[in-house]
Amino acid sequence: MSMNDKISVAMRSVSGKIFGYQRSLWRLAVLGALPFLLAAAAFFEAHQILVILAFLFPFVFVLVAITGQDSKLVGADPLTGLPNRTHVLVELERCLRISNRLGHEAGAMLIEVDRFKLLEECHDRAGIEEILLNCTNRLKEAVRGNDVLARLDGPTFAIVLAPARTLDLEAAIQMAGRIQRALSEPVQIGMANVYLTASIGFALVHRIENPTGDTLLQAANSALIEAQRSGPGAIRSYSLAMQTRIAARNGLAFEVTGALERGEIYAFYQPQISTRTGEISGFETLARWHHPERGMIPPVEFLPALEQSGQMNRLSEIMVTQALEALVAWDEAGHHIPRIGVNFSSRELSDPRLVDRIGWELDRFDIAPERLVVEVLETVVAGKSDDMVIRNLSGLARLGCCLDLDDFGTGHASITSIRRFSIERIKIDRSFVTHIDLDPEQQKMVGAILTMAERLGLTTLAEGVETPEEQEMLGQIGCDHIQGFGIARPMPMSETIPWIRKYESRDSTPINLSQRASQG
């Protein structure tokens, strides 16, 4: 932030306080003077003045009450010292008046730190406060001199984009990108570096019909939600077309049950690779919805609707059936894929018929149980699971199925829990994998996980691998398997066999990365 910007921010702060003091003094003066005026009017028998004052008193009282409410706007967030939501709405109304008078663009921008619940699970209160204070300082540096930065709640910040002749869609996008770059610098918490991403949504005045401060903030919030649905670190601008999409998405809840039965929701497959041999070690089954009108709909949109409608068990049945069908198809094509994983939620694991159903499906397809991997979130194992979940996990293990602990590092599962549920492999969450080739602290953390897994006789898989450098580093420090966009994106069944053939026929001989590490 330049010296002029700092002076501007300081002057705004001081002027706001002075204005607040002026309101308070005026209010005291009015209330203090009224009794004397009334007494004087009565003493001098100025009945007309007395009547006028008595008539005006209620209006003066209301005016004083209003100024009292306005003075509360100087209240700030206790952690960051930033203004609150009420102040944001007042500033937006002020900007709208200026925008209408000058014809300049103005707007609202919302920034939310991604995966904040995961951060709260991984760090104590002091660590979270340090993250939020770092975000605050970086946002202050990124905003323009006349913009107003506020904290709404939790990891969500707001920026009132002050009217400016140069403000337009492109300028707002560039500003959002600048904010994301500022927030992406690592934050040191204790001995570890935390890498943040942020989703950003903004709304400009001239893209909204009859805008008010409230509708402008709501539009920015809608854009933020759209950004979050597009994945971490996305930027979205509000438009009328977006509002149409939101209304259409809300209607998905009524369509999702029928979509299951019509076969519109089906399995995609993402490959997993052994770092020791370079061979395909398995696939993970992921649900996708191909809507006849809207195209591919991401799981974040339809899974909550399925859960709300009580259809998660039906989805599980479809995913297991299609996963086993895929194994049969790959075997028939001459490609032996050792295992395939299917995700199970806590609700699905509470089904009393689960073990019998899985056993029947394995028999029907003549698939060995050890080739089916049951993936369970670490939060399910770490929490207080009910008796049926415990019974089903134990039953699946006895059946011969492999149990993977998914998103390891996010749920504080104890070693006792890992042993209790017969876990065979832990899947290291992507938050530990990102930038592992660049960050020695990330390498130490993952190395500690790998050492623990080795001592417990568990294999490991790293999720969210996106670059060759991350792949190489994970192999060097001893991670057994890797999965992520850097290897392949999830694909429909029709694309798996061509991908397998292409991968298996690659020219280069796979490097045994773990051996390289031991030899070095």
Outline the structure in words.
With about 525 residues, the chain is of the alpha/beta class. About 55% of the residues lie in helices and about 20% in strands. It has helices at about 5-45, 45-70, 85-100, 115-120, 125-140, 170-185, 215-230, 240-250, 250-260, 300-310, 310-330, 345-350, 355-365, 380, 385-400, 415-420, 430-435, 440-455, 470-475, 495-505, 515-520; strands at about 105-115, 150-155, 155-165, 185-190, 190-195, 200-205, 235, 265-275, 280-290, 295, 340-345, 370-375, 400-410, 425-430, 460, 480, 490. An eight-stranded mixed barrel has the order 8-9-11-12-13-14-15-16, surrounded by six helices. A five-stranded mixed β-sheet has the order 2-3-1-6-7, with helices on both faces. α9 (about 250-260) packs across α10 (about 300-310) and α11 runs parallel beside α13. The radius of gyration is 30 Å and the shape is globular.
Which descriptors would you attach to this protein?
520 residues; alpha/beta; eight-stranded mixed β-barrel; five-stranded mixed beta sheet; globular; disordered N terminus
Largest sheet: 8 strands, mixed, barrel
Adjacency order of strands in the biggest sheet: 8-9-11-12-13-14-15-16
> Beta-sheet strand percentage?
15-25%
**Helical stretch count?**
21
Distance between the termini: 46 Å
